[in-house]
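HUMAN: Quick job: go over this next protein and say how the chain folds.
***
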Amino acid sequence: MHKQTITRCLDQLAASKNIVYPETTEEIKDIIVYCNTNACSFYPVSSGNNWGYGSSFPSDENTPIVMNLSKMPGVISFDAEEGLLTFGPGLTQEKLYNYLKANSYEFMVPVTGAGPEANIMGNALERGFGITPIHDHVASVRSLKAILPDGSTYQSPFSELGLSQLDKHHKWGVGPNFDYIFFQSNFGVVYEMTIKLERTPDKIVLFTMAISNEALDECLLKLKEIKESYKGFISGINLMNTRRMLAMKSHYLLEEQGYCAEDKIQKLKTAHKLEDWTVMGAIYGSKGIRATIKKELKKALRGIGTKKRYIASNNVIINKSWLGKLFVDAEDLKKIKEGFSILKGKPSRYPLNLIYSLSDIADGDKKYNPLKDHIGILWYAPVLPFKIAIINEYMVGIYKIFKAFNIEPMVTLTIQNENIIASTIPILFNKTEKEAVANAHDLYRRLLAFSLELGIYPYRLPTIFQKDYVDRVNWKDSLAGKLKNKLDPNNIVAPNRYSE
């Protein structure tokens, strides 16, 4: 162990913690024995790069030990025939990409917007999602292994029978399956996981369009139908509001430093040739499937929106004569190329630029590490039933609430499937100013109350707001509370992480 001062993007708090980097399961067990013997707790993190949710800072600020698992194994094995990857907590998006590339394996990394240094296992355990074909990253998990608070080992059902190969192929096993109690919880330390990777397609068709607020309802319903009809062949579909797009195209927030008035937004929208919403998704599959879906999309969206583009990935290795056909300038072309890379499973720092929107750090000076760059951010990420009335009420409420707290609502709606829309909004603030931190936290509390009023809720919570969930579910009498009490009577593993 060594002492280290750790911080988080949620506020100004800094604290000295004992950091330990186990490299083997035996070392994890040694730490567990130490904590049980000495009545102290530890907080395990895969790498601690979950910006906007707490990083490696413990949920209980008094927890003295942080167990950083980034030196544990990365890739353990890969079945290139089946696309089954077995790995440890040491695997990042970048390391996986490099491994696949070095071995000429044509499979996609389950990328997210958190950047190449973000952790594969950590994101899955937080129930993260992306826009590649298996966009619900929990859905790709086949099996896992964990060390429990008493030092014993848990493994998925078939592995208990000595059928480890079968366990990696069949998700559920036989009898009770407790794999999923380790997601967003504190029941143990997951040290191995097997997930399914998707093959890299030879070609992707990117589709984009611009729509007005008035066309949003109809567009959503049409996209819902298409998404339901062609499961597995269409990426998560993003709808980004004007403010979200302006943050990508300009530095307008540096001038505003708060909620931008609607008349100013309208002028900027015109100047940057934007609409109220920009839609982006991708079509995967064989040539025939891509052609069919493209035809269905064109038919379904006829008369809805403008600036419709269907761009095949091979056409983006482009010469200048293509620019006019795509109606894009050189800067937009650069972004399209970056977008294709991400859609093909290549990790990128580009999406991280969004959370630097309030910062005046020059691109060349960015560390692309929000902790090191002292960025203040909270992610508000509710999931909504795919009901038009709820979505409309959500958008009205979001603008009203963010305006009241003088923070810019840069909204993304992601169609995950025909039943659920996930929304992500970065709450950006200057974390060196106490008033700005307090205002951002008050905004998040108001959003949680608003969520419950509307019948929605974040799929994931920053550590400092997990108590809101715990206080509402009668934790001690819940099944999770009873399990925690039995599995971890000394409460040594991540106290207060989605628990009391």
In short: The first strand starts at residue 2 and ends at 7. Residues 434-454 form the longest helix (21 residues).
